[in-house]
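Fill in residues.
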C-alpha cells in the first residue's frame, strides 16, 4: 500500500503496527509537511497539498492508499473532501494515540478507520 503522511513523522514501530493491522506491506511512504498560511483560504492550500503528493488521476483511483491526516481538524476535513473528489471514495485513515506515561511522549496506532464504511453506514440513517 501507499502510505501518505500529512501528520507527524512515523517511527519504525508505528510502521510495524500499521503492517500488522492491515496485513499489507507499506510499498511506499510519501511524507508531506503541512504548513498553511492562516490568512489565506484553506481550500486552495489543500488542493496544492494534494497536488504535492504527485499522483496521477489513475493513481488516486486505483492504488491502495492509507492516509495519516494532518492534526489540525479544519485542514484534515478539507483534505478528506479533496481526496474524496480525486478518489471517488473516502480513504482509510490512521488514528494515533499517545502511550500513557511514556517519556518522552510516544504514540501508538489506535486504529485504522475505514471512512468509506463509516459513510456507507451513515447513509442507512437517511
Amino acid at each position: 500500500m501507499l502510505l501518505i503522511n500529512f501528520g507527524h513523522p512515523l517511527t519504525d514501530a508505528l510502521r510495524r503496527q500499521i503492517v500488522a493491522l492491515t496485513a499489507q506491506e507499506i510499498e511506499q511512504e510519501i511524507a508531506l509537511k503541512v504548513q498553511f498560511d492562516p490568512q489565506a483560504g484553506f481550500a486552495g492550500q489543500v488542493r496544492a497539498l494534494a497536488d504535492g503528493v504527485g499522483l496521477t488521476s489513475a493513481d488516486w483511483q486505483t492504488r491502495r492508499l492509507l492516509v495519516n491526516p494532518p492534526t489540525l481538524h479544519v485542514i484534515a476535513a478539507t483534505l478528506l473532501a479533496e481526496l474524496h473528489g480525486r478518489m471517488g471514495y473516502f480513504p482509510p485513515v490512521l488514528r494515533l494515540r499517545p502511550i500513557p506515561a511514556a517519556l518522552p511522549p510516544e504514540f501508538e496506532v489506535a486504529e485504522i478507520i475505514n471512512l468509506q464504511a463509516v459513510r456507507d453506514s451513515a447513509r442507512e440513517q437517511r
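The longest helix spans residues 73-87.
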